[in-house]
Amino acid sequence: MYLHAHYAELDIPVLHDFIQSNPLGILISAHPSSSDVHSPAPDIEITHLPWILDTSGLESNPLGKLRGHMARANPHAKALLAAFQLAQSDAVPVTVLFNGPVAHYVTPKFYVETKPATGKVAPTWNYSAVQVTGLLRPHGSSSSFLQTQLEELASMCEGRYTEGEPWRVSDAPERFVEVLKKAIVGVEIEITKVVGKSKMSQELGAGDRAGVVAGFEAAGSDVGRAMAQCVRVKDPDRKSAE
Known about the structure:
Elements: E1 8-9, H1 12-21, E2 24-31, E3 43-50, E4 52-54, E5 65-71, H2 75-86, E6 92-99, E7 104-106, H3 114-117, E8 124-139, H4 144-161, H5 174-182, E9 184-199, H6 206-218, H7 222-233, H8 236-241
Antiparallel strand pairs: 1-9, 2-3, 2-6, 4-5, 5-9, 6-8, 7-8, 8-9
Helix pairs in contact: 6-7
């Protein structure tokens, strides 16, 4: 991830909050080419997965761990298991990318100060993301890790995204759960690095930033209003005043 000083977010608690608020991450890993063993170019495997951020062992690793699971039939899972078996170490290096809840195109027409003064403006996008790198270890269907992962993931998602009595893994027949567990692979990532980027027009002068906020609000959409608020929150003048 390219981190310009204007946009870099390196505070670990802030990054942890971002991951917990946006738990659907993109798992990325590189593996030797499966179609051409002589090719120097690796196969890049990518899978969207919901994650639990485990901060129970921060004394030993202040960055924490990510816990998830994926379909055993997924070619990505097969590549990870093969890499784990071939690796000299007991883990496989991976990256997980978490995207913020909103992103939006920024038109140069929003730059109410610079555009009429010089015309030296260009379009861009505003967005936020967190990138995790770490070492992945797989867990089989018979492991206690997988049962705990399923129960805690269901609890997190039911509590956050639904109302009323939450659904629990124990609500399903035990035999049914055991069959499903055989079709998935648990994955645990020891985080070795985590960085974030929040690109919200911080590089602009106050007049142009105000134009961006006004432009997003004028869109009249939920996304536009959310983007306007993000730009306000990340306003460097506001932060310096605080």
